[in-house]
Amino acid sequence: MHHNFLFDLDQTLLNFHASEYIGLKKIIESNGQTFTDELYQYFKKRNKELWMEYEKENITKNQLFETRFRLLFEKCNVDTSNMDLLKINGEFIKIMSQNGVLMKGALEFLKKLRNDIPNSKIIIITNGAKLNAEGRIESTGLNAYYDDIFISEVIGVNKPSIEFFNIVLNAINEPKESCIVIGDSLTSDMLGAKNAGLTSCWFIPEEANDIDKNMKEYDINYKASSFDELYDVLKKWANLSM
Ligand SMILES: [Mg+2]
Q: What is the pTM of this model?
């Protein structure tokens, strides 16, 4: 039996928003426009709304991809009628995938975890696209630090569904008690762990609200607000579950 650490990827090990910022800046500037933080915030807001429409099945993924860039360029007063917005979206994702950004201290943390905890396995569980996840992982050197990876686009289901976790558990062929889910998201990581009956650790490196209330609601076992804290928590868990 191993100690199986099931890590979420974005805003846990990698900084998705930092890569998104780089990608968007390049796209805007290569189209002759001026990139501003305000524009980035506008994109994030519209993008989030469009993803919600997609999840409700009101729009397709291609409509989402086109619309987010149509809105962005319209905000810059650019006529988009002759622009290939899907192609621009593809370029954006490509730039992001080549520009992974680590959460500060992530590699050192994983290295220490692997070295210090016997029989540890680092498994990445992420919602998202294969190219975007794998590219960012490789561009940061994170690929040297994990044993297995499960990407929703590849396996066909998302966290927090129980199917996602069942596929992971079957594939790694380890008992539930040997696994702990670590992630920043309540609605995908913590809810997913709860659905699957797994131990969980909520990673909250940025400010979080209603911590105690959420820990109760999502049956969260541990929390950590830095990699140092997370290391201590995981070491304690590993000792208990030996
Ligand atoms: Mg996350």
A: 0.92
Rounded Cα gap, residues 184 and 162, in angstroms: 18
- Confirm if 28 and 52 have CB atoms less than 8 A apart: no
What structural domains does the chain harbor?
A: 3-14+102-240 (3.40.50.1000), 17-98 (1.10.150.240)
Residue 218 CA to residue 136 CA, distance in Å, equals: 30
Q: How many angstroms does the Cα of residue 238 sit away from the middle of ligand 1?
A: 22
What is the tens place of the pLDDT at every residue in 63-92? 999 999 999 999 999 999 999 999 999 999
* Burial of residue 31, with CB atoms counted within 10 A of its CB: 0-12 exposed, 13-18 middle, 19 or more buried: middle
Active site residue 79: no
**Is the distance from CB of 144 to CB of 109 less than 8 angstroms?**
no
Q: Given 8, 10, 184, 189, which residue is catalytic?
A: 8
Write out the H or E segment, with its range, that includes residue 162: helix 162-172
Cα 25 to chain centroid, rounded:
21
CB contact at 8 A, 135 and 170 = no
Average pLDDT over residues 130-147: 96
